[in-house]
Every structure is written in structure tokens, then in C-alpha cells.
Design the sequence.
DNA sequence: GCAATGACTGGTA
DNA sequence: TTACCAGCCATTG
């Protein structure tokens, strides 16, 4: 097991803070922390994501992590996450990172 | 230091 | 939805 970097701890901590029924994109996490980028977040998840609700972390288009598509669907379905077919409805499920009330964005 | 890789993202076709 | 391209940045060899 590789040593957990301080950056990884921030990522994992944030992922654990994501409320059920909500999700965050890799880029959102990186932007929220203000460090690294979506690739770094993905690396953290791939290495230490096994100890956090990784299914709440998805791509910017709502697609789940590779190799866990079916697994994510099961969790989302169990948490009541707004789905869009086999993908998450980011416009509804995207978490602001501190505003659990800002679930619905300006939509037409 | 350079080249390759990766659980990424946005735009275009 | 899928495919291709350019940008992004840390890790690895």
C-alpha cells in the first residue's frame, strides 16, 4: 500500500462528505480543493478510493467509474440518486460541496 | 529531464 | 452515443 499523501486525504475526506443521493465530478473535487486536477483526483480514487463512497464520484458527464458501472448503478438506485438512464443526472445530483440545498440549477 | 500513462474535461463532428 | 482532438497535471520508468 502506498503512503497516503495529504492531498489524497483531502480528496477522500471530501468524498466522504458527499451526502447520499448526490455526486461530484473529478474536476469538481479538484476545483473545490483548489489543488491538482481531475487526473490527480482519479488517481487518488483508484489507489485509496476503496475506503470511501467512490460511487458518488463520477465523470463530468455523469458516467460512473470504469469497472464499477454496474456497482455504481446499484448504489445510486439505493440512495435515490437522480439517474438519467445508466448515468447520473448531473444537473440534479451535482453537489455544491457545502450547499446541499442548491440541488436544482437553473434549467429550462 | 524526457516520454508514457491515467477512475478527466470540453468542444466538435 | 461514439469517436477524435487539445488541454490539463502528478506519477512512473
Sequence:
Amino acid at each position: 500500500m502506498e503512503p497516503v499523501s495529504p492531498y489524497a486525504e483531502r480528496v477522500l475526506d471530501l468524498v466522504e462528505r458527499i451526502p447520499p443521493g448526490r455526486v461530484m465530478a473529478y474536476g469538481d473535487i479538484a476545483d473545490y480543493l483548489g489543488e491538482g486536477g481531475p487526473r490527480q483526483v482519479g488517481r487518488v480514487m483508484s489507489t485509496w478510493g476503496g475506503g470511501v463512497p467512490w460511487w458518488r464520484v463520477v465523470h463530468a458527464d455523469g458516467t460512473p467509474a470504469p469497472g464499477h458501472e454496474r456497482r455504481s448503478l446499484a448504489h445510486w438506485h439505493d440512495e435515490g440518486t437522480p439517474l438519467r438512464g445508466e448515468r447520473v443526472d448531473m444537473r440534479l445530483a451535482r453537489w455544491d460541496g457545502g450547499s446541499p440545498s442548491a440541488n436544482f440549477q437553473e434549467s429550462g
Summary: Helices of chain A lie at 6-17, 26-33, 38-48, 69-79, 90-93.
